[in-house]
Amino acid sequence: MTASGDIVLLVVRLSDSFSEFWPALARDLGVPLAQWTPAEPGPPPAGASVVLVAAGGHEADVAGLLPRLAAPGDVPVIAVGSAASHRLAAQIVAAGAADYFALPDDRDGLRDALAAAVQRRRASLGRAALAQLEAQAHAFRDIVGESPALKAALERAARVVPHGDATILITGETGTGKELLARALHYGGPRAAAPFVELNCAALPAPLLESELFGHERGAFTDAKTAKPGLFEVAHGGTMFLDEVDHLAPELQGKLLRALDQKSVRRLGATVTRTMDVRIVAATNTDLLAAVQARRFREDLFYRLNVITLELPPLRQRGDDVILLAEFFLRKFGAQYKLPQLSLTLEMRRALLAHAWPGNIRELRNAIERAVLLSSPGTVALAELVRRQTPPPGAGPLPFPARLAQIQQAAAHAMLDAAGGNRSEAARRLGISRSRLQRLLEGQAEADEEEGEPN
Fold first, then answer.
1. Which CATH entry fits the domain spanning 315-385: 1.10.8.60, 3.90.180.10, 1.10.1520.10, 2.60.20.10?
2. What is the CATH number of domain 141-311?
3. Strand partners, 283
4. Does 12 score more than 60 pLDDT?
5. How far is Cα 334 from Cα 368, in angstroms, rounded to an integer?
6. What is the average per-residue pLDDT within 143-155?
7. pLDDT at residue 455 in the model
8. 36 pairs with which residues across the strands?
9. Which band of pLDDT confidence, cut at 50, 70 and 90, is reported for residue 420?
10. Contacts of 16-20 spanning 24+ positions with Cβ under 8 A
11. Distance CA 80, CA 99 (A)
12. Domain spans of the chain, in order of start
């Protein structure tokens, strides 16, 4: 009806009495005027800031009309009639109206009441707008760093924060902070009061993932003893964060695309669809376009998700940000474990800058926590901060000659290293399941071979 944030006077006309007064009244108040009659099909226009029920000669119908208006609690509904009756006024107020005025005698009182309602509404909208600006200004306060590479990504992200319907794809290596950025986009934007729901698409097999996303009805499958809403329903009005979206099974890719295009979902075992209002933020640490070209990811879904792309740089490209992050984590873990305040020596700073940090911020965070806990109280041991990891059994060059199980275990560890510690990516490169990779890493290949488990 009007732009968001406008103050609108809605006149609900039960009669045409005093109809010439309403436009003049709206002009005096400095607000737009909208009019509606109960005889019109559909509900009254949404977005009114003040509702005035013009009931001259039909005052007895006001109480029955109020539930149909379904005005929010912060929108006053004022009734206007021609009968000056205290009893009638009390009945109308008891039915839910904020006040009742009899015209023409109460014109000044009506004008004053509407002016006060408009002023309160303007103040409320002003506070809401200020709160929104404050939220946007601090949306990225938890993302630490001053490097040009990070600032460029955050400046791009800040431009889409106010737009709550824009679909966003966040890319970057494992551990660069994709989930943190997704949360900043949600809590700094217009959907902040609604749920933020996250789902790792690599964490569940396809049948369970489908049930998690779309929900199911009772009896939809063997263990479905009760109906369960899907995460899309849970996230209604808010944001759905789909991490490692490249791991979606092909059949789920099609269903996700359909849900996004139609803005509706259907539970497993259901015959009806449910409308959803959800903003999608997806994330991946792989090249989705390459996955499209390799026919592992649907091209139409790729373009549907790739509306706005935000790429987070790896830590090795962020220069002195590694020092800022290390100091941030020192303060965090020092306070968490109630230890004396710690600081970095020049030697430690040099060591932090010299390290490649293949695991990015996650690796740095873990290194700082380890050093805080294992160093002498009040100190940070350099050996603990950037110590080299002892290669796990089977890591390094493939052993040969050796038993098949040892070769497979070594290959699994080597691929895990090549994937920067990302087990899902290592499993994908090896062409096996994540659970299979885990068993190989633990040296259980022989048992799998004996059981004849497929890859």
1. 1.10.8.60
2. 3.40.50.300
3. 170
4. yes
5. 10
6. 93
7. 43
8. 12
9. low
10. 17/54, 17/56, 17/57, 17/82, 17/103, 18/54, 18/56, 18/80, 18/103, 18/104, 19/54
11. 9
12. 9-131, 141-311, 315-385, 404-451
Closest CA to 237 of 186, 283, 185: 186
Task: Enter the tokens of residue 335.
Answer: 């306070």
For the record, the structure tokens of 117 come out as 């309602």
Class level of CATH domain 404-451: mainly alpha
Cβ neighbour number for residue 49 with a 10 Å cutoff: 24
User: Could you name the CATH architecture of 9-131?
Assistant: 3-Layer(aba) Sandwich (3.40)
Percent of the chain with pLDDT over 90: 32
Whether pLDDT at 194 is above 80:
yes
Do domains 141-311 and 315-385 share one topology? The answer is no
pTM comes to: 0.60
Say yes or no to pLDDT of 350 above 70. yes
Amino acid letter, 4: S
Residue that is written with structure tokens 């700073």 in the block? 349
Q: Which of 100-109, 364-373, 416-425 has the highest mean pLDDT?
A: 364-373
Structure tokens at 451: 């059981």
